[in-house]
Specification:
heterodimer, A: 632 residues, alpha+beta, Penicillin-binding protein 2a (Domain 2), 4 domains, six-stranded mixed beta sheet, 16% strand, globular, B: 433 residues, mainly alpha, two-stranded antiparallel sheet, 16 helices, 1% strand
């Protein structure tokens, strides 16, 4: 832009050169730019040699032209100023010629210089970025005018105007830019304290959190329905952490003896941060009295948790309930467990007991073969390939042989002639072996990986990744085993809960979370968790197709116990075989599902270790939980 | 005592905030009497801050040495203030006030963290300041300073080659040499020589050719430092060079192209050098490299966060958990125990110091010295930006100290000398007028 402008000016000059240099410089171009009248710039000018293209020395009167000397020999202070300034042997004229030796384009240079307001007194350019903007030029025009007119008047012997102190532009620009840098620093520090601080400080690496405990009394953990799950009682100055529900919330709420776990661990910072009135905090600080930490209100529903806890009965295993629309975790039970109130005393025993692993949260960390619940994934792979379940027919004879390996339907059932929906509803292993073989490892792997197998799950608690190993070119036996949920695949109950939640929520997985909000001890809201989308796992069509398969499981298949209620249920049972440490074959009982397809507010995953067929154990457990939940 | 600490933390904030506000009101006061009154009240605040700080230090960590240090600091302030008043009545007292205030904060924080370092820091600062009284005389007498153009360049590059050799030998860990218990950091010396070189070269001749030569020599300096893994100093030199080029030529072309080239070079350095990449990773997600290069910055952030707005109060935080808390990360230690409000006021004091230097530079008629002043001032300001920005995770950490506040003999001496030179130039200007 500027370049172009300069070219134009150069052209103008070239046109007029040889006619009247003075006219160009004073009458036309310069005045044009400067908006300054008065052709009589310098006395020497009139004598300017027209032959020389642009005789700089004359223009500035620094050369041999008459008038130049007049200017410099004046009595004006500025002169002595300048000579002192250049007194170190610096010669302005030399400087200028050297500058031009360096290969400046004289004409464009001069114009640029004029535009930017050449500040001769300082022997400096006022700044080159003059953009030919009219206003800008005017600004500097003033300077220019002052400088030269004053001098001219003075040469004539006129009165001396007070010399103007100039603020050279580079200084201003530099001072302003560095000033801005410092302001950015300050703003960043403010931003840090307002926005980033909590996130940084809540890092588990932060050893200062515990120092915070000297200043703040740990806040309570509350359930969504108002029950206290953990609180700090103070007796004669000693604090005690109390868990009124004892074992029921053991893994979800966690503990603070021997390290921290559960909500106690990941909400540690919130619990040890006080948002009571800042004046009160200051006063407390002065009185060396602890401020009350914030209370953490979880998404857990105490009644539902109790229902799930008792429904699971004496089985080892886990139950997870979620709200698919928000990602709120409503209940999370893991058995066997521990009483956090007495954990300090029984710690060594707990750690030593590796056969029970009471401290492991089976809901998020337990890895189980998925059994027939995995047929959801295989069905999805089939749908992704064929875009419909119609047109599939299979005749189940109760067994299916690949290489030397024979697949049996559970308990040797023969399902006979079936379509996709009935094969799914009755959990026909032979049909799904056929499907898996047809799909191939690539399709199945692609689908599984898209559903977070082998991937870290979004989870606030410690969680395991589900294991997926089919990707490494399997043989057909492994392929069919994987397709109906045996093979090497291992999943966490939490992962299955997320999968069915996404299907229930039109394919979109909401970010699962355990904390609804934190509030100050006085009950003022501090921070609310806004439901957010984690990721779309399946498309709308896929979600609907899977949902209808899962409804068939309840309506006509292995989970029919859940049909005919005031709410509709969709789900999938699983009977996952595993080898016990004794070498016997055992069966884990699974049920995963959700209620009211299309507008679901409840998803559930149940696993009862060694519970037998899904329909015989996990389904009744889910049934009990659902009855309780919808019975209120 | 707990109560005293709590009260004192608010007092520190009030002191420094008032001090920094006075820095800025000073500029707007025309009346000499009022200006004098502002300077007077700043000096009172300076003494109060030192007294409050050291009373707390003595209450928490009493030792004869600390008590002596306390007395020494008060005497040092008195001598410095009186010295400039008497010897150089025309000096800029605002500059001196700011310098002493920053030193004072440094003394308190360093002594709280490591009393023996506090003593060392104080002695070096005192010796440096006394020696610096001679600098205005030297400037006035030694006209030859302007003519040593290439001497500066050669000395500077040689000193940096020593740094490079040290870096190579120690695998980038050590950039200084210890002689008789005194650690010499050559890059601090080169801060002066580079600016003197650029000023000498460009004051005589600011043609494009000359600018190119000056830029090339500066680029050699920067290049050696990047190879020595001293990225912070490299950046300081780079920015100072651009500013001097800009002021000398008045041509915005140089800083714009320079910044462009600098950005290109940074990208290149990122891909070429592991140590550059490491810093960027540690900046973007320090937690991901918590066990290695992210550890320092994370500890620093914990400290800043723990301090909050008003700080924990002196001796009530845990700044000792920050690695090199008295040097590169001293700002985090200050944030923890003095709080964000105090720290922001501190940034404003640093900014005021720079503004004073720029305005001094503007008033100097001699081209060489005005370039020296703006160059040295810019080095100071940019160093503050790099270290504060790095510690607060605003920009990647470049491993550079906070001038006048951080512990480190060479750094304190060079900054005091730097300010003495600027002060000397200012006095010289007053002589001229």
């Amino acid at each position: 832009m500027r370049r172009k402008k300069n070219e134009n000016i150069e052209q103008d000059i070239e046109l007029e050169i040889g006619q009247d240099v003075r006219k160009i410089l004073d009458g036309e171009s310069v005045r044009d730019i400067e908006e300054e009248s008065g052709p009589q710039l310098y006395p020497g000018m009139t004598d300017a040699g027209i032959g020389s293209e642009l005789d700089r020395t004359r223009i500035y009167g620094a050369g041999p032209a008459p008038g130049a000397d007049v200017r410099y020999s004046s009595e004006y202070d500025e002169r002595s100023d300048r000579s002192r300034r250049y007194g170190t042997g610096y010669d302005e004229r030399d400087d200028r010629s050297r500058r031009y030796d360096a290969g400046y384009d004289e004409r464009s240079d001069r114009f640029r210089r004029y535009d930017a307001g050449y500040d001769e007194a300082d022997g400096e350019y006022g700044g080159y970025e003059g953009d030919h903007n009219r206003k800008h030029i005017d600004d500097y025009g003033d300077d220019y005018e002052g400088e030269y007119e004053d001098k001219y008047v003075e040469d004539e012997g006129g009165e001396l105007p007070p010399p103007k102190r100039k603020q050279p532009r580079p200084y201003l620009i530099i001072a302003v830019s560095f000033g801005l840098l410092f302001l950015f620093l300050s703003a960043h520090l403010i931003y840090f304290n307002v926005r980033m601080k909590d996130e940084i400080l809540s890092s588990p690496y932060n050893r200062r959190q515990n120092a915070q405990a000297d200043l703040v009394r740990r806040g309570s953990i509350l359930s969504a329905d108002g029950a206290t799950l953990a609180r700090t009682d103070t007796y004669d100055g000693t604090e005690e952490r109390v868990y009124p529900y004892a074992n029921i919330f053991a893994h979800a709420v966690g503990f603070i003896t021997h390290g921290k776990s559960g909500i106690e661990s990941f909400a540690n910072y919130e619990l040890l941060t006080s948002h009571t009135n800042i004046i009160d905090q200051m006063i407390n600080e002065f009185r060396k009295k602890k401020s009350d930490g914030d209370n953490v209100v979880t998404t857990l529903n105490a009644k539902l948790q109790e229902a799930a806890y008792y429904a699971l009965g004496d089985y080892r295993g886990a139950v997870i309930c979620m709200n698919p629309k928000t990602g709120a975790i409503l209940a999370m039970v893991s058995k066997p467990n521990f009483d956090p109130n007495t954990l300090a005393e029984i710690w060594d025993e707990m750690v030593a007991d590796s056969s029970n692993s009471n401290l492991v949260n089976r809901a998020t960390q337990g890895l189980y073969p998925p059994g027939s619940t995995f047929k959801i994934v295989t069905a999805l792979a089939y749908y992704k390939r064929h875009h419909t379940f119609d047109g599939f027919h299979f005749n189940c004879t109760g067994e299916f042989t690949v290489d030397d390996y024979t697949v049996h339907c559970y308990k040797g059932t023969v399902h006979g002639e079936e379509d996709f929906k009935s094969a799914f509803a009755h959990s026909c292993n032979t049909a799904f072996s056929r499907i898996g073989l047809d799909l191939g490892a690539g399709n199945l792997s692609g689908t599984a990986l898209s559903l977070m197998f082998g991937e870290s799950l979004p989870c606030e608690l410690l969680s395991s990744k589900s294991r997926w190993s089919l990707a490494n070119s399997p043989d057909d036996v492994e392929l069919v085993q994987t397709a109906f949920g045996q093979g090497k695949t291992l999943v966490t109950p939490y992962h299955m809960a997320l999968l069915v939640s996404a299907i229930a929520n039109d394919g979109v997985l909401m970010t699962p979370h355990l904390i609804d909000h934190t509030e100050s001890a006085a009950g003022d809201l501090v921070k609310k968790t806004k439901p957010s989308v984690y990721r779309r796992l399946v498309t709308h069509d896929e979600a609907e197709a899977l949902s209808s398969l899962m409804q068939a499981v309840v309506e006509e298949g292995s989970a029919s116990e859940l049909s005919g209620r005031s709410y509709r249920v969709a789900g999938k049972t699983g009977s996952a075989e595993y080898t016990k440490s004794s070498g016997e074959i055992g069966t884990h009982s699974w049920f995963v599902g959700f209620t009211n397809p299309g507008d679901s507010e409840f998803a559930i995953a149940v696993i009862a270790e060694n519970g037998g067929a899904g329909s015989s154990t996990a389904v009744p457990i889910a049934s009990e939980i659902l009855s309780q939940y919808y019975g209120w | 005592m707990y109560l005293l600490t709590q009260i004192s933390k608010y007092l520190f904030i009030v002191f420094l905030v008032v001090f920094s506000i006075k820095d800025y009101t000073y500029v707007f006061r025309k009346d000499e009497d009022k200006k004098k009154r502002i300077l007077g009240s700043q000096i009172r605040i300076l003494y109060l801050t030192a007294i409050l700080g050291f009373v707390l230090i003595l209450l928490n960590d009493f030792s004869v040495v600390n008590a002596a240090l306390f007395a020494g600091i008060l005497i040092y302030f008195a001598i410095t203030l009186a010295g400039y008043r008497l010897l150089y009545p025309k000096s800029s007292m605002l500059l001196i006030n700011n310098m002493l205030m920053l030193l004072c904060v440094g003394f308190i924080v360093i002594t709280r963290l490591n009393p023996s370092q506090g003593i060392k820091q104080f002695m070096i600062a005192a010796v440096g300041t006394i020696a610096a009284f001679l600098i205005p005389v030297i400037i006035r007498k030694l006209k030859v300073l302007k003519k040593l153009t290439w001497v500066y360049a050669v000395v500077g590059i040689l000193a940096l080659l020593v740094v490079l050799a040290l870096a190579r030998i120690s695998g980038g860990a050590k950039l200084s040499i210890t002689v008789g218990g005194i650690t010499i950091q050559f890059s601090e010396l080169v801060k002066l020589t580079l600016v003197f070189f650029l000023a000498a070269k460009l004051s005589r001749d600011h043609s494009a050719r000359s600018a190119l030569i000056a830029g090339a020599v500066a680029a050699v300096h920067v290049g050696i430092l990047v190879l020595s893994t001293d990225l912070g100093t490299a950046l300081v030199f780079f920015v100072a060079t651009l500013v001097i080029l800009y002021v000398a030529t008045g041509n915005a072309f140089y800083p714009v192209v320079g910044l462009g080239a600098g950005a290109g070079a940074s990208v290149l350095a990122y891909h070429l050098f592991g140590h550059v990449r490491q810093r960027v990773v540690a900046w973007r997600d320090p937690f991901s490299v918590y066990d290695t290069s992210g550890y320092q910055i994370v500890q620093g952030l914990f400290a800043i966060g723990a301090g909050g707005w008003f700080g924990t109060g002196l001796y009530l935080g845990r700044p000792k958990t920050i690695p090199v808390a008295t040097k590169d990360f001293i700002f985090a230690a200050i944030c923890e125990e003095f709080g964000a409000v105090f720290s922001i006021a501190l940034i404003f004091v640093c900014m005021s110091l720079y503004i004073v230097i720029v305005s001094i530079s503007m008033q100097i008629e001699d081209r060489f010295y005005r370039l020296v002043a703006i160059g040295l001032g810019t080095e100071y300001a940019f160093q503050v930006f790099l270290t504060v920005g790095g510690v607060t995770k605003f920009i990647p950490m470049t491993g550079i100290t906070l001038p006048l506040i951080s512990y480190g003999g060479s750094s304190v001496i060079s900054t005091i000398v730097m300010l003495a030179i600027i002060e000397g130039l200012y006095i010289l200007r007053e002589d001229e007028a």
